[in-house]
């Protein structure tokens, strides 16, 4: 006759024994019985029960000499440990190592006994809850850093003090453990050796508690013992193991040579997310933090945070990545959380890994920010105070409002200096940074052709070929062109894009990329006085009558000159001023007398061009007349130098008749163009233009008559040269740059963009100040973002320049201006986010140094494989992660 020990099993748990009590039946809180396996196997053969063997229990050590059918609780030591395994798993057969027992539902056992005409009923009325605590002990995995992990099985009824004593006994610790961490997230951080003996319930029975024991001053003998191989422990007798209540195995979490080498499933173009997550998941400080009791730091009331949901989702994902299972992890839940708070990352489109990284770090910081009420801190200017004093003040203010593991790990500080170009007023501030976005200087060059015009008629138009970086800025183009045309210190260049006889757009934003300009575009640059600033300008476009289009007395066709002309309007101007400005702009194009002495018909047109420039208004006429051909050259010269708003005296008119003056005047007709570029039929009379209501850019269309075309060299007006094709330096060693070159480009002084104007307190207006950055305080983990991607309204480009970055020793001491920080300037590379391909389609991976494995690994979504250190340097490197040495 069989006698069984009874226990309570939770129906909610059906996993292996390390997860708690197994389910004995479908109903919750059903009783289960523990019976000798051989007896149960014989009974099953004689009359197979409906449910079969649900679980088998194998004693961890040899039981007492008693063997037979008796109540197990009468001879099992309270500390006896049973390894529970599912039916069908290893160890469930008869004769498996140690004594074997079957775990059978009580009602099913009763039916079996009844069929065998057993008169023995289960009259034992032991408390199921009390017995279940011993039959199904909790499982605590106790680990020592840098060692194997041991599993201790204890009773659910034990309080934390008893748990601590067991750990103390197992490790035979000479000095007391200091920290015990609960990785289950169910309890707060505790010091178990400081707890009182109150009967706390550590966790729910179906959960597994993960405890990390940090031991200070561990003895060499213990280190040797713990540091041994798993084989050494498995070869110990089961009795020895049971004496310590220890089952040697790897825990679910920890830091071993295989932990952390788990891939992430690609949910559809989510490689950008996987790459960033893997880099963060191998940042030691974050790993230690999120595998600890981090949830106590969650700030759910922070209006800038995400209610702690992002931190919880990231922490859960990090725990799964550091599990012992090597199966790839699906980040579906984490991605869903990100999409809730950042809709730009929803869906399954490709995104920028650095943009996700920036959002993730900022979101984690706000979720974990320990500052509940942020104090108001007014930013103060340096005002001549020492830099260190000002920097410390700014940093203290920053920490008063921001306190999280993200700040401790990733935040640094740089010095920002603004200088007014007008009064030289300087403003110094010290701002925090989470990562450095460095420009990538490219050795690929682009040759561009630009035609430069004067705005005062002093120089004829000239086309220049200049070379700029392939993805350089308009500021690079302006500097190259200024050098080519010998631009004066009192001049500036205004570059425009010309299309169809019109200025399509003014290229006035220095930071815009030259990649905006296509190969077939045409550029015109105008030399303007530096003091002009936002003074009104007049833009002339031109049309002319083409005699060759006149066939069979058909009216000649109007054709357009391609290049417009531009000039600054004076403060007071009228219609006559416009005419004189235009004529002066044409002066460099006028043929000399010897060149233009004969026209196509053989008639002498000498002096016709001079008529346009030297005309003076008659007191009774709105038109100008030409001086006599015999007039001295000095009088012509004086006429050119006259003020445009005033006409010369009548004594300079010469001997020309009124009819001659009227004929010459009719060679040009001036018409208004509206703001939309549409031609209007309103002809401008030279004394009837009210410039007080003129917009900043007055558009005028000039009609050339047939007899005027031959007097000027119009080749530069009829057609502008196109921008040349790309001329790239072949890829290779030449197309590379050192990381220090990127840093120097980032720290160099440069002007602010027009949209980022700085208000100068001395000038009392916004100025395009010069900005200079310097590194002041470096973080523990330095994240460097290489700006390979450029986005414009029309184009998207990626730089494939090879950046040669140091691996073992990144020395930033030469860039730190605070000399007291020089000891913390050396970094070692430990992770890289790579991007392969172009902007249209690419793929992200991560190259990571695994500290426990002592080598580099490539994380390509689900695939994780070892790689050599030499292979990590590629043009695909996008985000670099450095750890302070």
From TrEMBL:
Segments for region (Disordered): 1-27, 615-658
Gene Ontology BP annotations: protein deubiquitination; proteolysis
Keywords: Hydrolase, Protease, Thiol protease, Ubl conjugation pathway
Lineage: Eukaryota, Viridiplantae, Streptophyta, Embryophyta, Tracheophyta
Protein family: Belongs to the peptidase C19 family.
Top-level lineage group: Eukaryota
Summary of the function given for this chain in its UniProt record: Recognizes and hydrolyzes the peptide bond at the C-terminal Gly of ubiquitin. Involved in the processing of poly-ubiquitin precursors as well as that of ubiquitinated proteins.
Protein name per UniProt: Ubiquitin carboxyl-terminal hydrolase
PANTHER family documented for this protein: UBIQUITIN CARBOXYL-TERMINAL HYDROLASE
EC number: 3.4.19.12
Biased composition (Polar residues): 622-656
Organism: Oryza sativa subsp. japonica
Domain USP: residue ranges: 262-885
Reaction catalysed by this enzyme: Thiol-dependent hydrolysis of ester, thioester, amide, peptide and isopeptide bonds formed by the C-terminal Gly of ubiquitin (a 76-residue protein attached to proteins as an intracellular targeting signal)
A GO MF label: cysteine-type deubiquitinase activity
Record-linked InterPro entries: Papain-like_cys_pep_sf, Peptidase_C19_UCH, Ub_carboxyl-term_hydrolase, Ubiquitin_UBP8/5, USP, USP_CS
